Amino acid sequence: MKSPRTSRAKKPKAQRYKFLKEFLANPTKIGAVAPSGRILSRRMVEAAHLADKHSVVEYGPGTGVISAYIIRDLAPDARYFAVELTPPLVEIWRSKFPPR
Questions:
Q1: What is the domain partition of the chain in residue ranges?
Q2: Sign of the CA dihedral with 65 first, then 85, 15, and 35 last
């Protein structure tokens, strides 16, 4: 399967820097030192078998790497809800996934 495409308001390197900066500033709020890679993200989402799920909640979507695969694999009538508490990461996520 191909990697999902998202609109990119900022370069990935800048996003990784912002992610690391937030981790260093708030290590108890950020669950990783860097965003998940594409291969890991794809495999995690494929293992969840989302095509037959009615609702999916993603807690801490960060820069949206896993979100892109979740959205790609959701059934057309499924609901998706992402919860990100870190404002700079919310900004990155929203730039990739604007409201519809």
A1: 55-100
A2: negative
